[in-house]
Amino acid sequence: MVLDELDTPIVLAPMAGGPSTPELAAAVTEAGGLGFVAAGYLPASELATRIAATRALTSGAFGVNLFYPSEPSPTARFDAYIRTLAAEFTIGEARYDSDDWAAKLDLLVADPVPVVSSTFGCPTAEEIARLHGAGSEVWVTVTTVAEARQAVAAGADVLIAQGAEAGGHRGVFVDDPADDLTDPLGLLALLQLLRAEVTALTKDVPIVAAGGIATGAAVAGVLCAGAAAAQLGTAFLRCPEAGTAPLVRDAITEPTPTMLTRAFTGRRARGLRNRFMADHPDAPVAYPEIHYATGPLRAAARAAGNADEVNLWAGQAHSLTPELPAGELVRTLSADAKNALERVLSLRIQCY
């Protein structure tokens, strides 16, 4: 198990769309954690290039994250929204694709990496078996007990528990508007429920905790709650190795509240609240169609430094994000987590 071989229980979240780079993944791995290359929005050929670039920078283990493809959205579901946007902005084509899922899977079977993770859904048992046959572990992002149950049944080696605090897209298998009527599970609640579920299934499936983790103390907290490791994304956005846009680097230092929205992509995601999100609270479920339609307006906003018309994906603890090299950040988080765990142990001994 790759988790058992890490020097520190810190995993880099795969942040597709810009922040993820081979340099960032390699730096986290070199510091003793587990780096991840985000495959989302890349053709298989570009993913192959980034895997090769990461291997050139580290001989350690790293993972690749894939977006599990959703079903195409009916045009009638998003037509009115697209017309509304087109009246004010220059937008692109609202189109569907599978994010090159089949080609990426073939690539990772032919040229395996230690870990392959999925977001937005669970690979089939047959797909997981193919990756296992190539020597890769398969980690599946889950947000509920039901999703975890499905992932374990399909053969997942590790569950990534994504709490509601996490920045970026929710990893839900099905983005159902009916779920908006209930609060999504926060990380600690989800961890407790998943630990109970895994125990009930008598399965030895480790859990990696993700969502709102920004400090070593928070890393220690999720380890105490039963996680085998902590996955952090927003915490690495200001690292020099990250491909984060300057606009985002600046915005996440401010104490701006976050909110969940479908306005930019048609799939629920957490980002810093801005005018575009506030103006479109009822954006429909239509991913990736809306994602592609809003691509030009988001690119124009980034180029103009306009924070009100671009997706500023970030977790709830974003204002704590430091500006440090990734390796130094991993070492700092690790040392702070160790100190926090020692304080907990000391307090426990004093209580007895």
Nutshell version of this structure?
The chain has 352 residues and is α/β, with parallel strands linked by helices.
Write up what this structure looks like.
The protein has 14 helices and eleven strands. The model has no long low-confidence stretch (mean pLDDT 96). Helix content is 41%, strand content 13%. It has 352 residues and is an alpha/beta fold. Strand 4, helix 6 (125-133) and strand 5 form a beta-alpha-beta unit. The longest helix is centred in the C-terminal third of the chain and has 26 residues, at 326-351. The strands form two sheets. It has an eight-stranded parallel sheet. The protein has a three-stranded antiparallel sheet with strand order 7-11-10, with no helix packed on it.
Q: How many E-type strands?
A: 11
Based on CA atoms alone, the radius of gyration comes out at 19 Å
Biggest beta sheet attributes: 8 strands, parallel
pLDDT under 50 segments (min length 5)? none
State the shape.
globular
Order of helices and strands: HEHEHEHHEHEHEEHEHEHEEHHHH
Structural class: alpha/beta
Total DSSP helices: 14
Which strand-content bin applies to the residues?
A: 5-15%
The spatial strand order of the largest sheet comes to 1-9-8-6-5-4-3-2
Task: Kindly state the percentage of residues in helix.
Answer: 40-55%
Distance between the termini: 35 Å
Let me know the average pLDDT: 96
SSE order and pairing:
Elements: H1 2-5, E1 10-12, H2 22-30, E2 35-38, H3 44-57, E3 62-67, H4 75-86, H5 101-110, E4 115-119, H6 125-133, E5 137-142, H7 145-154, E6 158-162, E7 168-169, H8 187-200, E8 207-210, H9 216-224, E9 229-232, H10 246-251, E10 258-261, E11 269-272, H11 275-279, H12 289-293, H13 295-304, H14 326-351
Parallel strand pairs: 1-9, 2-3, 3-4, 4-5, 5-6, 6-8, 8-9
Antiparallel strand pairs: 7-11, 10-11
Helix pairs in contact: 2-3, 3-5, 9-14
